[in-house]
Design a protein that fits this description.
- By secondary structure, the protein is α+β, with helices and mostly antiparallel strands.
- The protein has 7 helices and 10 strands.
- Strands 1-6-7-5 form a 4-stranded antiparallel beta sheet. A 4-stranded antiparallel beta sheet has the order 2-3-4-8, covered by helices on one side.
- Helix 1 crosses helix 6, helix 3 crosses helix 6 and helix 5 crosses helix 6.
- The two termini are 32 Å apart.
- Bound molecules: zinc ion.
- Zinc ion binds next to loops.
Length: 285
C-alpha cells in the first residue's frame, strides 16, 4: 500500500491535469480492474461518459475523482496501481487496465496496474461529498479540518496498543506502518504502550509527529511530478535519507546512538530504539 504522502502527490497531479475536464469515454481493458464496480464494465463506461471531473479528493489514503451528478470515481491503488496522464499517441502500457479519454482531446488518464490488486469503482457521494464506501474513514493529521484533541481523545478511549490505534483508519487515517514507526520514534513511545495510559500531552505529541513526518515526506517527494506524469510508485528518495526508525535495524539511533531493533508486529515489523522507546512494563495495563 502506498502511504499518504505518495497518495497526496498523485492527488495533486490529478487535480492539476484532470480536474475541470469532461470524460468522453471510458475503456476497460481488464475486467479485474473494475471488479469493485458491481454493475460491470458496460455500466461503468456508460456512467462515466459525459461526466465532468470537478476535483481530485483524498481522505487518508483513499483517493477519488469527484464527478458531476454527485458521483465519485474511487481509485484503489493496491500494491502497484498507477494513475498516468499520457498523450493519446503514447503507446499503451503493458499493464494498462482502464483508459479515460476527454472531450478536449487532451491527454488521457490511464490506470495501469501490474498486479491488479487495485482498481476503479463508481460510488455515490453523500451529503458531505464523501463516497459512501469510505464515509467511516477518519480525517488524517494533514487535513486542515483535523481536530487534534478529538483524535487524541479517540485514541485514548481505545484499550489497545498505541501502534494498533495509529493504524486504525477509523480513529486517525492515513498512517501506515512506516509513518507509525517514525511518529512513535519522534514521540519516544514503544509501539506496545497501552493507549489508555497516554497522557493528553503525549498523545498530541505523537499525532503532531505523525503529521510532521508526513509533511516532510511530501516536501521531499512532491517535487518530481510536475512533468505530465503522475506516478504512485515514483520513489521520492525520502526513504533513503530521512527515516529515523523504519527499516533501520542495527543502525545507530539518530538521537542516542543505540542500535535500532526490529520486533514482529501483526505479520510485519516494528522498528524502534531500545533506549529512547523502552518496552512498557508487563503489568502496565
Ligand atoms: Zn535512541
Amino acid at each position: 500500500m502506498p502511504e499518504l504522502p505518495e497518495v497526496e502527490v498523485v492527488r495533486l497531479g490529478l487535480q492539476t491535469h484532470v480536474a475541470g475536464r469532461t470524460i468522453r469515454e471510458a475503456e476497460v481493458l481488464h475486467p479485474r480492474a473494475i471488479r469493485r464496480h458491481a454493475l460491470g464494465a458496460e455500466d461503468f463506461a456508460k456512467r462515466l461518459a459525459g461526466s465532468r471531473v470537478e476535483a481530485a479528493r483524498r481522505r487518508g489514503k483513499y483517493l477519488w475523482l469527484e464527478l458531476s451528478d454527485k458521483e465519485a470515481l474511487l481509485a484503489h491503488l493496491g500494491m502497484s496501481g498507477q494513475m498516468l496522464v499520457q498523450p493519446e499517441e503514447a503507446p499503451d502500457e503493458k499493464h494498462l487496465r482502464v483508459r479515460l479519454r476527454f472531450d478536449d482531446d487532451g491527454p488521457e488518464l490511464r490506470f495501469v496496474d501490474q498486479r491488479t490488486f487495485g482498481g476503479l469503482a463508481l460510488d455515490d457521494l453523500n451529503e458531505v461529498l464523501l463516497p459512501d464506501t469510505i464515509a467511516h474513514i477518519a480525517r488524517d493529521p494533514m487535513d486542515p479540518a483535523f481536530d487534534l484533541d478529538a483524535a487524541v481523545r479517540a485514541l485514548r478511549s481505545r484499550r489497545t496498543e498505541v501502534k494498533r490505534a495509529l493504524l486504525d483508519q477509523t480513529l486517525v487515517s492515513g498512517i501506515g506502518n512506516i509513518y507509525a514507526d517514525e511518529a512513535l520514534w519522534r514521540a519516544r513511545l514503544h509501539w506496545s504502550r497501552p493507549t489508555e495510559k497516554l497522557t493528553l500531552a503525549k498523545g498530541r505529541e505523537l499525532l503532531t509527529a505523525a503529521s510532521d513526518v508526513m509533511n516532510a515526506a511530501l516536501g521531499a517527494g512532491g517535487t518530481s511530478f510536475d512533468a505530465l506524469y503522475v506516478n504512485i510508485n515514483g520513489q521520492s528518495g525520502y526513504f533513503d535519507r530521512s527515516l529515523d526508525a523504519y527499516g533501520q535495524e542495527g543502525l545507530p539511533c539518530h538521537r542516542c546512538g543505540t542500535a535500532i531493533r526490529r520486533e514482529p508486529f501483526m505479520n510485519r515489523s516494528s522498528f524502534s530504539c531500545p533506549r529512547c522507546q523502552p518496552r512498557p512494563r508487563a503489568n502496565s495495563r
